[in-house]
Write a structure and sequence with these properties.
CATH architecture: 3-Layer(aba) Sandwich
Strand content: 15-25%
Oligomer: single chain
CATH superfamily: LmbE-like
Distance between the termini: 33 Å
Structural class: alpha/beta
Helix content: 40-55%
Number of strands: 9
CATH topology: Rossmann fold
Amino acid sequence: MTEHAEHASKAEHTAPAEHPGSDSGPPGDAGAGQLLPALPEHGVQRVLCVVAHPDDMEYGASAAVAAWTAAGISVTYLLLTRGEAGMAQDPRTVAPLRAREQRHACDIVGVHDLRILEHPDGMLEATLGLRRDIARVVRQVRPDLVLTTNFDLEAYGTINQADHRAAGISAVDGTRDAANPWVFRELREQEGLEPWTARALLVVGHPDPTHAKGVDDDEVQAAVDSLSAHEAYLEHVTGHPAPSAFIPEILRAGGAAAGTAHAVTMRVTDLGGLGGSDPDEDLV
């Protein structure tokens, strides 16, 4: 499945896929009749978001980003590809176009640090090189939280796009690699980048969320506007609904799972800095 076809499917299926408890029982690990707890954020200063393509952050997650930046938290976006294979035009034309649209989307939600790598769109592989590139940025940014998107084989009512799967597992592995001084030793020995341990990994769009980040009406609108910023890309996606037609619905479903008006839901793995739990276990 191509990236744009998968995004059209995501727009149609994101609400039930992200929030199974919104219309079919309790969500994820919250337990029968329990609401998702709020994401622990005390002392959080920096968040790193690692995704495959321009616009991957804009299917609901950017509402949480808008909330973080409004609270003075620094958010960095790391895009692993330029998204150049996602449209019919020549990739040499598409890559800068998608970068401009992503920059506009970032401006809307208060993200000043946008980094775009040049791994091949549509052919992203979970290699040691990709893990090293992610570990490098983790050590540079030194985030408290690292966020990525659902990388299950099946997601959003279809087969998850290959780049999304590679990006997610590489974000997980690269984040843990960044904490190990004996993995990718050249980052320390040649680039002067000391190991860094993030406090937690967040996976948005997960079918079994453990936590939620509440967002207000302004942040919901910012999420709608940030996806709308990808104007040329959305025009290219056949059958893609208007962002205003489904982003608020996604966030309302998240709010219902968390006992608030709107929320972004996520599965959280503590790496030793949130609740003091075993870093190999999900924080539940």
